[in-house]
Specification:
heterodimer, A: alpha+beta, VC0802-like, Alpha-Beta Plaits, 7-stranded antiparallel sheet, 39% strand, B: alpha/beta, GMP Synthetase, Chain A, domain 3, 12-stranded mixed sheet
């Protein structure tokens, strides 16, 4: 039930994000979701794309450091308290979130929460047990 | 079995060696005093005559020669023979001022080729080898010095020089050289380019690499050996003394380079006071040539920091060893009063798993405060999607540098291949202070 996420190292200087998105666009790679974590000197761009392998090779051949990490995508109804409910479960189960970001899917009915856990198997098991829908890699790419 | 080039000279008992050295030194000092006015004037000013050299210890009575002396007598003022006997000149790049020029007679060229052949023999090379010579050809002594030595050895030389790295790799694939001669930083450039073009170093025929012309750390040696799948040995030389082939690491010994003492007399001095230090102490390396004709030099201050090792070497050679040069008095940075050699920082970086051997040290002055930042490229091996992992890495490097040098620096992660690659001597320090 894991989803592959691409992470790219970014030096903190102008034009780097534009460069990445331009290279991906040239290769017709669609970005489903993204988040940037940054410090004073550098940032890490995390991307969910429709074609992970192609995105990785495109960015690598353009000189970027790229890594692939497994994250999980939880689908919740796009309404008040949706995220709060998931986080409550996470807290109760004592799961440790490394980071998260979210996007709303095209129909606008559901939100997709992307989580990076230190113990991904336990997280999947706990969330499924509590009744949450976890999207598969194929489901995410097809959104 | 140790391979010798000139077994008798290489294994001479010290007493015999020292008596040869003294005779050669006396002859040299007399000749230089007679033929070169600047040397005569300096000796007169110091109140020393050629007859005062009665033992090797008397060498300390002679004045030093420094790079400035060569510049003041630019271009040919310190040559001891008329120009019709000089068959070749070489010159330093002159990046730090006027270039310094050195000259060679026909006999000097023969001596140099012979000593370079001796050096290659220490690295295990024989007439059956093929040598990929990536030292720059031209005014720099590296390329031609190594070239003549390889021919003298009877091995096949590929005079490929520096640059055009992809073509060099094709040549390595097609010609199958067994020995690589290059600067260590260029060797890393070669290794990286091989990775980019998809050439496995294991598919090549290289067996040993002879690296010199810039200081490099032990951890960098491990890195070069691993990346190129070769044994990496040190060679030492400088144009003012001759060029490559002044000292050479043997395959058998664990550390240090045998100085070819039958031709070059080493001393270690305190760089501040100029005093000769006792055997085994670390200090500035000073050389006197014993047999060169066109451009002999007396007590030349190399600015290289080293130590002399008199222990007997496993290879059976009696020639003293100099410790790997890890820094130069002039590339020493003083950061907030602490002496820092770039190679010490390199040692820490190369000792950190996954860190690529490409780095840059940037020094600035903010207000009255020196700041040093070390730039490290983020490779796949150290990259993480989590900020804290990368921050832990920079903190660890920072602490290791602090432990080693006592200086706090900033470690900055940069994107891969953004630090300039070396085509010869690497430029690793950017000092923006106006000192």
């Amino acid at each position: 039930m894991q989803v592959e996420q691409i992470a790219v190292f970014l030096e903190n200087k102008s034009g780097r994000l534009a460069e990445i998105t331009a290279r991906l666009a040239e290769e017709n790679i669609n970005i489903r979701a993204l988040s940037v974590a940054d410090t004073a000197d550098f940032g890490i761009l995390r991307l969910i794309v429709d074609n992970v392998e192609k995105a990785k090779s495109t960015l690598k051949s353009n000189g970027f450091t790229v890594g692939i990490t497994d994250v999980i995508a939880v689908e919740v109804a796009d309404k008040t308290g949706g995220l709060a409910g998931v986080l409550k479960t996470i807290e109760k189960e004592k799961l440790n979130v490394e980071y998260m970001y979210a996007f709303v899917n095209k129909t606008g009915e559901n939100a997709v929460l992307i989580f990076r856990f230190d113990n991904i198997d336990k997280a999947i098991e706990s969330l499924q047990r509590t009744g949450y829908t976890i999207l598969s890699d194929e489901q995410i790419r097809a959104l | 079995m140790t391979l010798y080039w000139e077994e008798e000279m290489e294994t001479l008992p010290r007493v015999g060696l020292e008596s040869i050295q003294l005779k050669r030194l006396q002859h040299l000092v007399a000749r230089v005093y007679k033929t070169v006015a600047p040397y005569r004037e300096k000796m007169d000013a110091a109140g020393v005559k050629p007859e005062d050299i009665q033992s090797l210890d008397d060498l300390a009575k002679l004045p030093f020669t420094v790079k400035e002396d060569l510049r003041e007598n630019y271009p040919f003022g310190l040559f001891t023979v008329p120009m019709d006997q000089v068959v070749r000149v070489h010159a330093s790049s002159g990046t730090t001022g006027k270039p310094t020029v050195v000259g060679y007679t026909k006999k000097d060229i023969e001596l140099w080729a012979n000593l370079m052949a001796r050096a290659l023999t220490l690295a295990g090379a024989t007439a059956r080898d093929m040598v990929h010579n990536a030292y720059g050809y031209g005014l720099f002594t590296g390329g031609l010095g190594a070239h003549y030595g390889t021919e003298r050895l009877g091995a096949t030389v590929i005079p490929v020089s520096g640059g055009n790295t992809k073509r060099q790799i094709t040549i390595m694939q097609d010609f199958k050289p067994t020995v690589l001669l290059a600067t260590p930083s260029y060797a890393l450039n070669l290794a990286e380019t091989m990775e980019t073009v998809g050439v496995d170093p294991k598919s090549l025929s290289l067996r040993v690499g002879v690296f010199g012309a810039e200081p490099w750390s032990e951890n960098m040696r491990d890195e070069v050996e691993r990346k190129l799948n070769i044994k990496a040995v040190d060679i030492y030389g400088l144009s003012e003394v001759m060029g490559p082939g002044v000292a050479m690491q043997c395959l058998e010994g664990e550390k240090g380079m045998h100085i070819f003492e039958d031709h070059f007399l080493p001393e270690i001095i305190d760089p501040d006071t100029g005093e000769v230090l006792p055997p085994g102490d670390k200090g500035e390396l000073v050389f006197t040539t014993l047999t060169k004709e066109a451009f002999p030099i007396i007590r030349y201050r190399t600015k290289d920091i080293s130590r002399l090792i008199y222990d007997t070497c496993k290879c059976g050679r009696t020639l003293v060893r100099m410790e790997k040069v890890t820094g130069r008095t002039d590339d020493m940075l003083i950061i907030r009063g602490v002496n820092v050699f770039p190679s010490q920082i390199e040692h820490v970086l190369m000792g950190t798993e996954g860190v690529e051997p490409h780095y840059r040290i940037v020094v600035n002055r903010e207000g009255n405060m020196d700041t040093m930042s070390v730039e490290v490229e983020v490779s796949d091996a150290i990259f993480s999607d989590e900020i804290k992992t990368l921050e832990n890495l920079t903190k660890r490097i920072q602490m290791d540098i602090k432990d080693m040098l006592g200086v706090t620096c900033k470690v900055k992660l940069v994107e891969p291949k953004t630090i300039q690659r070396s085509e010869g001597k690497a430029q690793r320090v950017i000092d923006n202070r106006n000192l």
